[in-house]
Amino acid sequence: MLRLTKIKLVENKNNELDDSFTETYVQAQYLYSQLLREKYVNRHHSLHLLRKYLDKYFYQAMVKEIKLKISQGTIDDTVVNNIEVVKYAKLDENLIITQLNVNGQDKEVQFNEGFEDSFARDTWSDYVIFGKTKSGQYKIISLVYGEHFHLNGRDYNRQRNLRHTQYFERRK
After folding, report:
1. What is the enclosing helix (H) or strand (E) of 65?
2. Strand ranges (E), 6-153
3. pLDDT tens figures, 120-162
4. Using CA atoms, how far apart are residues 24 and 52, in angstroms rounded to an integer?
5. Which pTM was predicted?
6. pLDDT of 75-121, one tens digit each?
7. Which residues lie below 8 Å from residue 108, measured CB to CB, with a gap of 6+?
């Protein structure tokens, strides 16, 4: 879609961007995992805390995803240690798309399926669209997984943009 719309991401040399929006990514990832875990313990726990970090439409999509994961017996635990903003494009003064390389821990456990589809990874890449609110806070409008992803227990490990790391996904 980036090519079709002729949006060109440029290298983030010398960390040119204001990194305040990456804190939104970190907090949203942590809160998503925390809320998913808590839903197993307390079915009445409110997911509204995610609204602080997510656009209202992306929030609705994430609530559906959390409910789906709960119904399938999946826990998704994500902790971000470091983010590198590799590339970005400012679409206007309030809208930015970024390519993020992330180091941390991302573990997904399928406990209703005998753990066959569980996985863990330490490095991943996401394309994230951030929008700035009237109050100046960045919110995630959309997140598109990078070239590496997993689907239905199958690993897709051909991520060229993670530069220096020897990267693979470990099945648990």
Report:
1. helix 56-71
2. 10-11, 74-92, 95-110, 119-132, 138-145, 149-151
3. 778 888 889 999 999 988 999 998 876 444 444 444 554 444 4
4. 9
5. 0.77
6. 888 889 999 898 899 888 899 999 888 999 888 877 766 655 567 77
7. 74, 75, 76, 77, 117, 118, 119, 120, 150
